[in-house]
Amino acid sequence: ELKVEQNPLFLSMQEGKNYTIYCNYSTTSDRLYWYRQDPGKSLESLFVLLSNGAVKQEGRLMASLDTKARLSTLHITAAVHDLSATYFCAVVGETSGSRLTFGEGTQLTVNP
Amino acid sequence: KAGVTQTPRYLIKTRGQQVTLSCSPISGHRSVSWYQQTPGQGLQFLFEYFSETQRNKGNFPGRFSGRQFSNSRSEMNVSTLELGDSALYLCASSMTSGVYNEQFFGPGTRLTVL
Questions:
Q1: How do residues B77-113 score in pLDDT, each as one tens digit?
Q2: CA nearest neighbour of B98 among A54, A103, A90, A93
Q3: Closest to B42 (Cβ–Cβ): which among A42, A94, A105?
C-alpha cells in the first residue's frame, strides 16, 4: 500500500524566513503533485513533478523531486503572510490509475 | 473554460438519511474521481469513474456508491448516513484515466450529518 508522509505537520514561521516541507513516499511513483488549500476551500494545484531531478519554481515556492530517495521538497523563500495555508503532496502509484494518495498536509502560518 | 462544478455546495442531513452529490467535470474530461476530506483521516480516495465504468475504488463501505453518466457527469451516493460521514467531498476531473493525467479539483460539497 502506498504511503505518503509529510513533515512537519505544523509550521509557524516569520515573514522573510526560509523553510522546507518534506514529502516521503513508500513505493515507486511516476508523478508527484503539490497542492495548496485555504481554509474551507478546495485544492489548488501548485506543481506537477514528472521525473527524477525535476525542479519547478513559482514565485517564492520551489518544488523538487528525488525518485531514488522517494522524496520531494517544497521550499519556501522569504515567506509572506499570503502563503499561509495547508500544503499537501500527493503521489500516483504506478498501478493506481488516477488515484492520488495524499500526505497528511502541512499547515503553514506565516506571522508578520 | 469552466472548471469542475459540484452541487450542492453545502448540505445538512440527519443520521440514517441518504444523500446524493453531483459533479460536472471540465468539458472534454472523461474521468471523475471522488475524495473525502475529514480532519481525522485527511484526504482519502473514494472511487474513480471513466467512460461510465468504475475504474478504481478506495477502502470505503458499500454505503458509498457512485455512477457516471454518458456526458461524464458523476454522482456519488451515501446511504444510511453516519455522523462520521461529515466531511468535505471533493471531485476531480481529468482528460482520461491513468497516471499521466493531471486532476483538477472542484470546490467541494460540505456535508454535515447531525
A1: 999 999 999 999 999 999 877 767 788 999 999 999 9
A2: A93
A3: A105
